[in-house]
């Protein structure tokens, strides 16, 4: 008798399970996605051509799937450019858009952040994409490579992400990774005009300072027209038309000189965090970013 009851219970559970599968497969609908938007300055938000509000904006009842988002800055007197892009909302997952407007796309910046499920349940990962690419990516101050880059087996929790490359403003992002998910950050860096501070002579208390037609770097390297003995470094085109040589392998290190696209310098067989050591003048050594050089071996 007990056996018959057991068979009936198992059969009932099987019917319930089949019913749930059929319901989810044929009648179930994917849950909504969430979107959060922050901008500087304030902006009007359009989703799929419909005005839905202003920033800061949050909606956790949007239909999952692809949407077109347009952000129009309200400060029209500054001639700031609008932004438009596509996002793919995942059910139950928050997608965040941050945007800093400027007078042109080149000087604008921002990022889109979202999560994707991965196979590991107790670990998280981080994927960084950037415009321009080949930017130096640091997580909690530690260099992780050049974008696009994937950082695996990252401990879940809060992390400080910085993305930067010569000629562009470095962007710092506070992000939180979640166990079982990959955090994806798509960053746009704002181009900056370096060297403006050098166009203004430093304050000197001399009685009659001699006029200067144009600012000069601290050291003038001697360009090499014929290639030096291999290995050597060839300077590539840069957004500014020149490249800084630093005393140490860091964008914050003291500038030693400037070099120009097309110039070639002996490579000293030393590389640190994407920076290459060169001899930019006889007896003088410095570091250049690997983003804008070609190593010829």
From TrEMBL:
Q: Which residues cross the membrane?
A: 6-22
Instruction: Supply the SUPFAM superfamilies for this chain.
Output: SH3-domain
| Alphabetical UniProt keywords | Membrane, Transmembrane, Transmembrane helix
Q: Which PROSITE patterns match?
A: SH3B
Name this protein carries in UniProt: SH3b domain-containing protein
Q: Which Gene3D superfamilies match?
A: SH3 Domains (2.30.30.40)
Q: Which domain of life is it from?
A: Bacteria
- Does DNA-binding show up as a keyword for this record? no
Biased-composition ranges for Pro residues? Answer: 208-230
Q: One Pfam annotation, family name? A: PEGA
Region (Disordered), start-end ranges: 198-230
Q: Which PANTHER family match?
A: S-LAYER-LIKE PROTEIN (PTHR36194)
Q: SH3b domain: from which residue to which, for each copy?
A: 230-297
